[in-house]
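User: Run a structure prediction on this.
Assistant: Running it now.
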Amino acid sequence: MTSARKSFGPVLLAALALSLASAAPQDDQRAEIVNLRSYTHPNFTRVVLDIGKLREYMPGELHDPGRIYVDVLMAKLNPILQNQSYPVKADYISQIRISQKTASTVRLAVDVDFSRIVSYRVYHLFDPFRLVVDIYPRGVAAPPAQAPAQAPAPGDKAAPPGNRNQPPVKRDVDPKDPNLNATSMARQLGLGVRTVVIDPGHGGPKPGTIGKSGLQEKDINLAVALALKKLLVDKAGINAVLTRESDVDVGLDDRTVIANQKRADLFISIHTNAHRDRKRGGVETFFLNISPDPSVVELAAEENATSTKNIGEMKTILQKIVQNSKIQESYDLAVDIQRNLVKALSQDLPAIRDLGVKGGPFWVLIGGEMPSVLVEISHLSNPKEEAKLKTVKYRELAAQGIYDGIMEYVRSLGKG
């Protein structure tokens, strides 16, 4: 992909992730993949991977040799398909392969000649759940990026798809052009950022993490949020709204409601991390997704503890998440914030660890109609980081790093 930013597929519900984590060890929660199909049409080639169960997937590409791939998480390959290759009657594709990349990840790979391809599209269909890769050779016009959603004809053999979640990956563009860093709706429509809702995690009778010295997460989160609001308003002229401006309790479900009511362009939830291993420290930023990482699921369970949602609501919420078109932008925003936050905090704590950007099933991010991220600025359970979190300097550096990340994201939209 010429774009510097990855594209991500659909997401799963927090409750589902937590149920996977709590399942008995002998329960195999992986979806078994038993079928791979491909069809070469006059205008494009379609590859269909039948999965049956809703699963997160992560597309990407490699070069030298050229390859389009899709990693399916929480999946296993039926032995009959293991390391199988499929020749294709197209001069721009040499073969299709599928393999068990890790114990819980299946990789679909299409070996291609990128010099002969103008675009490709990775997306999903339901009933049953399946992944589709459409590859368009040069000289053939790809379908509009935001065509109305429609299911392919029976057998998935015809009708180029119009899919709102995964537009075609366009090639032959300048990767330095900020307007082409991704093909999301926000960038296509030239949308900017005027309002940011900042969410200081916890509050009132829910203090969040408490450090050994008695320092409470809710107080740190609010201090950083207030400092970030000042930077956004004073330096960038951006309207900034807090979900709470004092020590009060705001329900998890109400926080994105506030953001939606304020017609926010971005939603930033600020938290302070904790871990059973007091040596663990560092910064990590999350966007809404499921994760096979037990530490992420454990953290999400702690952050989700005050949710009022019931398992019976899973289907409705799951559909809401899957149809969310903000996943790409949320990931992009998380990357920018993570990089700048680590850079800022390292001025006061040079050894601060960059724990990266991860998908996480956090209730506070569900329901937002805008790109939304959750930032864990440091570990209150880590003695060195707890000491720093007590200081005004470190909190202001945290606010500065998040601010710099937001502004980098705004510039990537071509609006700043």
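The domain at 195-412 is CATH 3.40.630.40 (Aminopeptidase).
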